[in-house]
Structure formats: C-alpha cells, structure tokens
Design brief:
Four copies of one chain form a homotetramer.
Chain A lengths: L39 E4 L3 H4 L2 H7 L2 H26 L12 H16 L12 H30 L5 E3 L3 E6 L2 E10 L5 E16 L2 E8 L6 E5 L3 E6 L11 H6 L2 E11 L4 E10 L3 E3 L1 E3 L3 E3 L6 E4 L6 E3 L11
Parallel strand pairs in A: 3-11
Antiparallel strand pairs in A: 2-4, 3-4, 4-8, 5-6, 5-7, 5-9, 9-10, 12-15, 13-14
Helix pairs in contact in A: 2-5, 3-4, 3-5
Chain lengths: ~325, ~325, ~325, ~325
C-alpha cells in the first residue's frame, strides 16, 4: 500500500489560501519547523538585503547577544589600538618610555578610554592627528552606546508569546470516538487574554497522478478562550466535518501529514497582540493516548498549582477505530 | 442548608471556554485576585524560566525600582572595589600612602568613576591588569546604562489602564427589580475611548455529587461606551436572562461565587489598547445599596467636577426580593 | 421663546452610552474642548496620583520640554553645588585659594562635571565624603540621562494624528436640502489609511421640566475613507433620519448643542492606530455657507497641490429652510 | 478614437470614498507613486509645520542618516570651537603657547571632549565663562546622545512590511478568459500572517463632457492568505463583476488607468500590523504574459527555495480577447 492511497473525507473542503505551495513536488519537507518558522530558504538577492540584522540581534540568545557586543567592543578597540600604535605612543602626552608590548597595551587602553568617553587623565592625545582620531572614536563610542541601548530595549520589550506546546499531538478518545488533541500552557508571569487558535492540516495527496499538497482548516471544539491562565487542550474532534473521518490506524501511521497550529492572544503585560506557531508531523502524533492532568488545588494556600513539567505528559489508552465521534 | 443548594436559572447558558478549570476540587480559591492577576502558582520549570524579569522590573513600584538599581550599582561597585583593593592600591598612578580603610575607599571611588565612565584625573590605573579591569568595568558601566535606559523607558511607556474600580459590587434596585452594579472611573489625565466591559460569573455548584465551577457571561445594560470620561456604572440586570434570576437573599449571602470583570479600551495617550481586570467575590457584594453621585457641575467655571474619592461611596436602600426586573 | 423649546425629530433615537453625563444640571459647559480633551476636572485623590507626569512631559510643547529639563539640570546642579560649597572647596584636590564667589562657581562646575560624568582633571574630590557625594551625583546623572533619553524617544515616537479640522462647521446646501459639513486634512508627511469618522450630537433639552443632555449619533454620507490623502469633508445630511430634521433657522441659532467629532485611522508611518477628536458648539456652526475647493492640479509637474491654509475657507450661500434633503 | 471613449462594465459599481479627488481636471498625474506614497504636494502652512522631521530621519537611508548626525556633530563642535577660540585659548588651564591654527585645533578638540563628556585631563576650562560654556556643551552633548539613541531605536524598531511587488502587472490568461495578475514576495527573515490585499482601479473617464476620476474596488480570487511565506500572486479575474469586462486590447493600451494595491499583514517579528502600497499605471501592465515559477524544492535538504530575483520574471503568452473568464 502506497502512503498516499488513503481517502480523505469528501465533505471536508480544502483551501488553497494558506500561503504554502500546492504542488508537492515543488515544495520541500515540512511546512513549518517545530519552532514555528517556515521551512524555506531565500535566494536571488544579497544576504544583507534578505536579512534584517535587527531581528537577528533580537532573536539570538542572551549569551550570543552579549558575546556579539563584546566582540564588537573588542574589534573596534583593536582597530583603533593599531592606529594609535602606528602613529606612535611617544607622541602621547603623559606617556612613559615603554617596551613595544607596553606601548601596544597603552594604545589599547587609551583607545578603550576614548571609546567609552572615560579617561583617567594621565595620557592625552599629543598631536593634531591623534586628537582627530580620538574625537572620531568618542563619536563612534557614543553612537555604539545609542545602538546598544536601542537593541537592548528592543530585546526586552519585544512582545513574545510565552506559551509552550506539548511536544506531541495525541489521537485520543473523545465523545465515543476520537479526536486530535494538543496542549499548551503559558509559562511566564504574563497574562494572555482572548486567545484564539487556528489549526490547519497539510496532507500530501496523489491527484491525477501528481503529488499535491492539500490544506484543511480543522474545526475545533473551542477555538477561543477568554483568558489563558491554566493549560489549554485544543481538541479537533474527528467527526463528519473532519478530513480525517475515514482514516484507518494505518492511514494515520503512513500518511504524510502535518498539523499546523497558530495561536494569537492579547498579552496585557506587553499590551500587544502576540502570536506563536508550531507544527506536528504525523510522526509526532501519538496514537491512542490522553493527556495527564497538569494542575490541582495547591496545599497550604488557596491557589491553583500548575505543573509545567507535565505539559507533554500522557498515558496510553485503547482506541477503537470502528466507533465514530458523536457531534 | 448547604451553601451549594441554590438553583441557577436553567435558561442561562454556562460556558467553559473561560480558561479557568471546571473541576472545583482541582481548583484553588478565588479565580482572580483583586488586582486582576490569576490566582495560580507555577511549578516544574526553573524560577528564571517561568519569570520574565523584564516584567518584574516593570511592575514593581517606583521606589522598589530605584532601590533595585541602586543596589545593583552598589553591588557591582563593591565587587570591583574588592578586585582593585586586592590588586593593590599602591599600583595606581597618583595614589598616596594610605590606611587600609582609605585604600578601600580609594578603590571604591576609583571603581565608581570607572563604572560611570567619569574620572577626575588624579588616580589612574597603574598597570596592565588594572587597566584591563577598568576597560571591562567601563564597558559594563555603559551596558548597564543602556539596560537602565531601556527599563526606564519601558516603565514610562508601558500602556496601563488608569482605571479604578469600586471596592464593592452592589445588589441595587433596578427597573422594579434588582441588578448587580459596579463602578469604575478613569483617574488620570488620559482619555479612554471605545471602552468595552465583559462580566463573567463563576459559581461553585454541586453536580452529580461533585463540586464543579460553572461560568456564566452576564448580560449588561450597556457593555460599550464611546468615551470613558466620567464614571461608568456597569449594570447587570437580574432578569430572565440572568443565571441569578431565582436567587434568594440567602443564596446571595451563602453561595460561593465570584464576579470577574474585564475592561478593554483604547487609550489615546498611549495610542494603544489597554486592558484591566478585577473580581468581586460574593463576600464583596453589598446587598441592598446604590452608588452615590460622584460628579456635578463645577462652581466658578463651566467644567464638570469628578469626585474620585466617592468611587466606592454608596447608600443602603431597601430591596424587595419578591419583585422582578422589567426588561 | 426659550432656547430649549425646539422639537427634535422623534424618529432619531438618542443613546446614552456616550460616557458623558445625562443630567444637564450636573454637567458643566461644553463636553469636549476644541482640542478634543474632555471638559472635566478631577478631585478627591492627590495631584500626583491623578496626573501621569509622563503624559504631561509628552504633551508639552518642544520649548516647554527643553525648559523643563534645563531647569531640572540647573536645580540638581545647584543642590549639589551648595553641598560641595558647604563641605569646603579647600578640601578639593587641585583647587586654588579663591574668593567666596569663585569657590561657589568652582563647586558649581565641579558639580556639573560630576553630573555629566565629564571631568577635566584639574579638580578632584579631596576626601571620602566628597567622593561619596560625587559617586552619588554621577549615578544620578546617568539615571537622568536614561530618563531624558526615554522621554525624548517617547515624545518622538508617540503616535499622533497629524490631522486638522476646519475651525467651523457649516450648515450647507445639500441634495436640495441641507447638511452639516465639516472638513479635515492631514497636514504632515504621514499617510493615514482606513480612516473612520464618528459624529455625535449633544443637545440640552427640557424633559419633564428638567434639563437633560441628549446624545444622537449623526448618520454620515461617508463615514469611512480608504486613504486620507487630500481633504475630507464630513457630511451629515439633515434628512428624515436626522434629529435636526425639524429645526428652523432660529432653532439652529438658539439651541444649546455640540457636535462631537471622533476620527480613527491607521497611520502607516507610526504603524499604529491614531485617534483625534474635536467639537463644534452651535455657536461655531456657520449657517448658509459652503467650503471652498482646497486642492487643484499643480502647475509644472503632475502632482496635486493641497492648500492647507484654505481648510476653513468658506463662502456664504443662500439656504432655503423650507426644502428638504433628498435621500 | 479618443483615449477616454471606452465603455466600463455598467454592473461594476464605482465608489467615491477612496480619499482621492473625483474631478480629474483638479487632480494631478498618478494617484500613488510607485513606492506607495500619494502623489501630492502641500502648501499654505510652513515647511516645519507640514513635515515631521522624526519621520524624515526615520525614512532616510542608513548612509544619509549617518551623514546627517556626523554633520550635526561637526556643526555643533565648530560653533563651540569658535566660541572657545574667541574667548582665548590662553585662558585654558594646561594649554601651551601655540600658533593660531594650533589654538583653533586645541579649541576644536577641547569642544569635542566637552560635547562627548570625555576629557583627557590636560586642558581644563580656565575661567568662569569658559566653565559655563563647557557645562552647557556637556548638557547639549548628553541631550544629543539621548536624541540619537531615540532616533536609532526608532529606525530599528519601526514596523515595515518587508514585501516586494513585481515591477509589472500582467494581463494573463485565466480560466478560459483573462485576469490581471501581480505578484509579491516577502524578502526578509520576518513572518507575515493574515495578509490582506485590497486592489482599487482608478480610471479617467469622460462624463457629461467633463473628465472625472472613477474608482472601482477590484474583486480578487483570494484577498486573504493565512501566512505569507512564499510568493503571492494576486489575481483579479476579468469576469462579469469586473469594470474591465468589455475592454478591448486597444482599451487596455489607450485608457488612462491606475491599479492601486494595498496590503496589510501582521508581522510577528515586530508584533505589529504592517501595511504597504504600490500602484501600476496601465503603461506598466504587460498584455499577454504569465509569471514564471519562483520556488522549487531545494536540492540537498528538504527546504523550499524561493528565488527572489524571479519576482518580476514573466513569459509572453497569447491572449484571446474574444473569450470570457468563467466564474
């Protein structure tokens, strides 16, 4: 049996305005990476033209960012160090007779003082040209301070959805039949309200001898919650409206499919709309399982305790593929 | 009589997509704290992973914030003070022979000058290693300046709903029957437009021998105002559409319920949507009262005068539970 | 004839959810000031509690802002100047014997160097306490820099509707009858799209012997434009749907009314929604006039030329109150 | 045959709320420039009043911006240099006997050190007035740093639609008939979701002997895509609903028309709505052509490869004007 020989529910209407390609042979592997970024490469225009360095600097980890600006500070300093060194340290006012290495160090620290517009007063630019370079370095230093201030604020204040998804989607028992379930939970001290989820199924099908991508909007039990405070389990009931209505256990195992999840919410810490995405390939779908509870009444006080480590915790259960979900 | 033995209006439809748990035994005390934050705790991932330090620094009071950054400044300074002290103050250019305490002080002020990239010129880093540490401290100092600039701007510019709620909700006479009323007023020089209120009732009920949380969207007399300039009294008429239609005075006193209030508006100072929340437990519901007027024509000029101190001011009135609200 | 003895169109439905008061005797003069701010005062909580100093600093003119921060700089400096002066200038390293005035000046400039973390190296803090105060002043200086940076950015980047309204509203001929017209034009190099206008009429009426405020949403010929590039004339046709349908010329002259205008648009320079408001009292309504053209094809190039100085330019025309507007 | 003697489809309803003028003789050339800015000039109020210098500084290229602030730095420095020079360098503490040129240079570098609040300690302000000017220059320097920080952050963080349009629109074969097609593609590492396109046709027509501008909203095959990751071809089918239904090949060549394109999307890097616009005159419409494919499966990995240089790449095809598009 070939993997594309299953039958989708003819009642489920596919849609093409997903922004992904329709011809499966033109398209690469999964549509979205696990982290929600589209799985594409761009070519034909220069690297710097197709990259927003601001967003690269915003998206890197805290450590990478610190290393980047430290490296920047060092590089600029070294460039000016060489300039001062070759102009001659002897020219500097206040400088003593020194070995070559000491002269280089003197130049380096003089440069760093100019760049950070500090200055301890012992050494001073001795002649016109050194003065000119110092003035330029100080200008550059303040400009760099302005840039780094902007970048740091950009990093802090960028609205992000502090929301985690379960690693797996489950094919779980539901209303006498079955449903696809996935779970998310906010994991930081922010408050998400008016959260809305949109789940799209991408399937590779054979149509007139050609492999094509078909997309289906999956109807959800609840696609909106007023306030996303505890965990939220998103449920797509596999009933008559589902494109997967006729799928057998083998189809679920063999089909080349991908579940695309898109969540939009209002974060009232950022006072901004935040969005996040993820995707589950059919390989990441656990057949016959249900999620374990992840919150309970807290002992000792009257709060509710949410166990974030249990987000992907599930138990295997039996699933009867012959029974259908009741609407 | 047990507290959960009241009868809710069967015509009022409960809803489960509130984002709060449905099983009352799994859930803690009140759903929202008085300040609008959900009453939950998180566990299972590290403290720093589940906290956004940016938002902690944004939400603390002005005083706490000033103390935090002062403490930060002192701590960094002290760390470098110890480093300089143990490297030996005698190494510094321009330093005099001093007592140990004076040496420590010299190190401290040298450090603070390096950190703030100031420098008065008397003392200067005497050798290579001190120079290196100074360069690092100046780099750190400017980085800290950048961070503090970002945090301060984040604190100023964060859109907040400058809106206060009455401490109590009232069960007040209304159209021949009664209504739940609560009042809010903007208290700063900002302008809120297109304000929308959403009021949800959470009740703990016994269902099939189990305690469950039931949620009801409460219909409001007006849920939108064009412009929130004076006070706004939100009115939920207890008529046929209300889940509380059959409630007796005892039910109001004994039931374990909570009124969740959510307000969204466009603030045209911030040019941003702001949201705010609060909640009233049934213990905070005053039975038989109505709000006093809080604005009147100003004497001497033609302005309207809003008395913000009267926001929670109310007078006791008689309430006839046998009469019903006219729609 | 008393000014409130006109008859409003009974078909026009008044609404109360405007956020303005309904009892005319409790309410002050005009609802909105000409600049769009509500005409109210607040009392009952402290000045600093009911004022957002951030918004005060954002709303003041460029000149006022510069004066404020200059004054701040001077004040802080003077405070520290006095501290240094009374600690004794003689204590400073590098200081010469000076007259009292010169000592004060020395203290002042030393303070300003500490505050701006500059420092020319001649004078240095001579003892422990002076050093301590210097370290504090430098800390304060950098903090002030951070605050001013934030305020300046807040001022630049605050989304504002660069939109001007005609000073007067006109009662103009329209479709055989008449209409209330007012005009607006964007006056800066920004682009407003999806602009939406909402016009509300506030009237003071006598109802059962009491003076009340009645509000009517006025139907507009077009309330939305795709792109606000040229001028936009807002037209409320006085036809059967209008509350002013039965108004005579005397009514327009004598009634105490106010036309509240609210415009919302997306500014794609700021990438943000901007709103603006204004109001016209009936005293600012010109009876029998129409707006002059304010744009034409530019000579010499193929651009359209918009004359912003003609925004309120109108010509008197005859108006026949006996004829009705055709819908 | 005059260019305005074609017949538009009487079923297609024109609309006037586009924000552009209706009288063609009052209006200039194209409505929108290719970069999406309206093709208008403003007059009647002062230059600085009708320009937002913040937006000018935000919209200029990176190079122009750097030049502007360098020029600003130099200008301020030179002004203060002259002041110091004419006050007399001899007054400065630490200054040597110098030639006039050297005195000027000394003044210049002293000024730049004051402005950048650096200072190497050799030279210091010698008297009261120089001190006063130094304090003022340092204040100005920090203020400038604050302004530049704000501008740089404004430039980084300004939400922009990183979206490119094909240079030409095509009149392409479609469903047995023809359609107007244009193509866009995101070209940076940002993600656009919920993209919505609105296409308006502006035509110059003769009506009752007068030239007027008529605007038509063009119905699109798909006007919304969930996620704008690959290229998006916007298709206006020329069927019975189209104002161009009766157009002959000559009409397309001769008519004076302009296709206005407006795209709105949510960019989740900026967490903000971004908009962009462009326009195609009928001169920029290629008759009888279709777009070449611009993406395919990447060799060597499983990504999809998008060729951004092929955005405007098209092939000539035959077009049969006698056949009609099937709906």
């Amino acid at each position: 049996m070939k993997w594309s020989h299953f039958i989708t529910n003819p009642k489920a209407k596919s849609e093409i305005n997903t922004g992904f390609g329709v011809s499966s042979t033109d398209y690469g592997g999964r549509f979205l990476n696990k982290n929600g970024n589209p799985n594409i490469k761009r070519k034909g225009i220069g690297y710097f033209e197709r990259m927003s360095w601001y967003h690269i600097l915003l998206n890197m980890s805290r450590l990478e960012f610190l290393l980047t600006i430290s490296l920047f500070y060092l590089t600029i300093n070294l460039v000016f160090t060489f300039v001062y060194y070759f102009m001659g340290i002897a020219e500097f006012g206040g400088s003593k007779t020194l070995s070559h290495f000491e002269q280089f160090a003197e130049a380096f620290f003089f440069s760093s003082q100019s760049f950070t517009v500090g200055g301890y007063g012992r050494v001073d630019p001795g002649n016109l040209w050194i003065n000119f370079i110092c003035a330029f370095e100080a200008f550059l230093g303040l400009l760099s301070l302005a840039v780094v201030t902007g970048l740091l604020y950009g990093r802090f204040s960028r609205p992000k959805a502090y929301l985690r998804f379960s690693k797996n989607a489950l094919l779980a028992p539901f209303n006498g039949g079955k449903a696809i379930m996935l779970r998310m939970a906010p994991f930081k001290n922010t408050t998400l309200t008016d959260a809305e989820a949109k789940v799209t199924l991408g399937l590779v099908l054979e149509e007139n001898g050609k492999l094509v991508n078909k997309f289906y909007q999956l109807p959800l039990e609840y696609s909106i919650v007023n306030s996303l405070t505890l965990s939220w389990t998103i449920v797509h009931p596999i009933d008559e409206r589902s494109p997967l209505y006729n799928f057998t256990e083998e189809d679920f195992k063999n089909a080349k499919g991908e579940i695309l999840v898109f969540v939009k919410a209002f974060d009232d810490m950022f006072s901004n709309t935040v969005v996040t995405r993820t995707s589950y390939t059919f390989k990441e779908l656990v057949i016959g399982a249900k999620f374990d509870y992840m919150y309970h009444r807290s002992e000792g006080d009257d709060k509710t305790l949410l166990h974030l480590d249990k987000l992907n915790s599930y138990s295997q259960v039996d699933l009867d593929f012959s029974k259908q979900t009741q609407i």
